[in-house]
Amino acid sequence: MLLGRGVQWRLPVPPPLRWLLPRGVRLCIRHLRLGTLLEIERLSVRHRLEERLLDPPPDVLAEITALAVLNDRRLIRLLRRPLTRWLLHYVTVDSLVELWGIILRLSRVEDFTRITASIVTMSMTRPRTGHDSEEGR
């Protein structure tokens, strides 16, 4: 995720719209917001994706990818179902599985916990005791 640009890929458009969008539609997955992460986790738990790692259902993967692309409450409400159908129709299952892997990597909290642990070890969160506290005695 170089400079916050996200992961981008192009989707083909249906034949009637190719004259309007000859290059296809470019979709992008950026850093996921908390609400999006919670919704993706809810879908994962409901459909038991942890147990079905070798054969995940394509419709759930398309919905998770749609959530990650939209990544905004209003957009998710408006465009979740149409984008999910579009992804199911125009993206192969192998590509959906690959995108699911990217989304899983984006939703990790390991980097945040590493930063937090290093801040604690460097004692940056401890209150400072300076000369003012010693003079006040």
How does this model look, in words?
- It contains 6 helices and 2 strands.
- It has helices at residues 34-46, 58-70, 73-90, 93-106, 110-121, 131-135, and strands at 7-11, 25-29.
- Strands 1-2 form a two-stranded antiparallel sheet.
- Helix 1 (34-46) packs antiparallel against helix 2, helix 2 (58-70) packs across helix 3 (73-90) and helix 2 (58-70) packs across helix 4.
- The mean pLDDT is 78.
Question: Given the helix and strand composition, which structural class is it?
Answer: mainly alpha
User: Got a strand count?
Assistant: 2
- Largest sheet, spatial ordering of strands: 1-2
The ordered string of helix (H) and strand (E) elements is EEHHHHHH
The rounded distance between the terminal residues' Cα atoms is: 52 Å
Helix content: 40-55%
- Chain-averaged pLDDT: 78
Work out the strand percent.
Answer: 5-15%
Return residue spans where pLDDT drops below 50 for at least 5 consecutive residues: none
Q: How would you sum up the major sheet?
A: 2 strands, antiparallel
Name the overall outline.
globular
Q: What is the number of helices?
A: 6
Cα-atom radius of gyration: 21 Å
